[in-house]
Prior knowledge:
mainly alpha
Amino acid sequence: MRERITAQQLEAVYDDTIVALYRYASRRCGGNRPLAEDITQEVWLRAVKHWRRAGIPETPLAWLTAVARNLIVSHLRRRDPLSLADAPVADILAAVENDAFSESAAVASAVTRALDRMPAREAQLIEAFHYERCRISQIAADKGLTERAVEGRLRRARERLRRELELTLNAEGGYA
């Protein structure tokens, strides 16, 4: 039988993860604050319920962000697909090139769906550089790579994001 989790343990994990979780949700929700708050709250409700049964995972933030990602994807799937008038492919691709991923909900929604279809490594690199605003040097140090290697990987990840966006938008919006 699992050891009972105390309120103090939950509070400690909450204090350690709430800011990072909210930032994650906010980025993925395109700056839609009410939605990011709802996602963050729902994730924590699920965490408390699940963790009381199964215990706190070894990496709580990873568990929390995985649940947040799934909730956001579910939310985006329930919404109407993007229309050409709301988010032309050219505008979204220009937003990607100009690092304006969360300029609008439509852009953020399309980018989130495209990132979800990409290999995790490439999506994480794009998120670190564009959403978290990490410097190339910081990413290189974290990954044990040269700055030039990170620049090359980032360039290839952006190109894949562009292709995934085109596929995503063509599939959802019926673009030619």
